[in-house]
Specification:
This protein is α/β, with parallel strands linked by helices and 149 residues long. The protein has a single domain, classed as Glutaredoxin. It is built from six helices and seven strands; from the N terminus they run ββαβααβααβββα. Strands 2-1-5-4-3-6-7 form a seven-stranded mixed beta sheet. Strand 6 and strand 7 form a beta hairpin. Helix 2 runs parallel beside helix 5. The longest helix has 18 residues.
Length: 149
């Protein structure tokens, strides 16, 4: 689970909470392990699904541990976020956003609705052969919940 009051540092220097990031139908948070991928890679890999969710009223955030700042806030990642005109790369300032942080080479996606009730989660390790199938099923479920609600 996530602590919706924990401060998150955006790539543009803004300090926000999950409540401030959520769209009208909630928030999809990617907890990114410190070695799971750079910010621009996550923005590229999940850009299409992020746009679909955004159209449905669900915002997307990629949250890295503070010690992974060089992966999340490198120059290429910041340029990518600016180009996409999105504030979606964040650092967990004090390490309390996640009850249990994702493993170093993994990411965890968690969907919470507008009331911040968790409705699903999936964790993916790098090199997982069936990861895309699990992710596709998870995203389809999130979009289905948004369409129904």
């Amino acid at each position: 689970m996530i602590d919706v009051t924990a401060p998150l540092l955006a790539h543009d220097g803004a300090l926000l909470s999950a409540r401030e990031l959520a769209g009208r139908h909630g928030l999809l948070v990617f907890g990114v392990g410190r070695a799971a991928g750079r910010g621009f890679q996550m923005l590229d890999q999940f850009g299409e699904i992020g746009a679909r969710l955004g159209a449905c009223g669900i915002n997307v955030a990629f949250v890295y541990p503070r010690e992974a700042a060089r992966h999340a806030f490198d120059a290429t990642s910041i340029r990518s976020a600016r180009y996409r005109q999105t504030r979606s790369l964040f650092l967990d300032v004090d390490g309390r956003f996640f009850d249990v942080p994702p493993p170093a080479r993994a990411f965890r996606a968690i969907y919470v609705d507008g009331a911040f009730v968790q409705h699903g989660a999936v964790e993916v390790e790098q090199g997982d052969a069936v990861a895309q199938e699990r992710l596709d099923a998870f995203f389809a479920d999130v979009i289905g919940q948004c369409a129904a609600g």
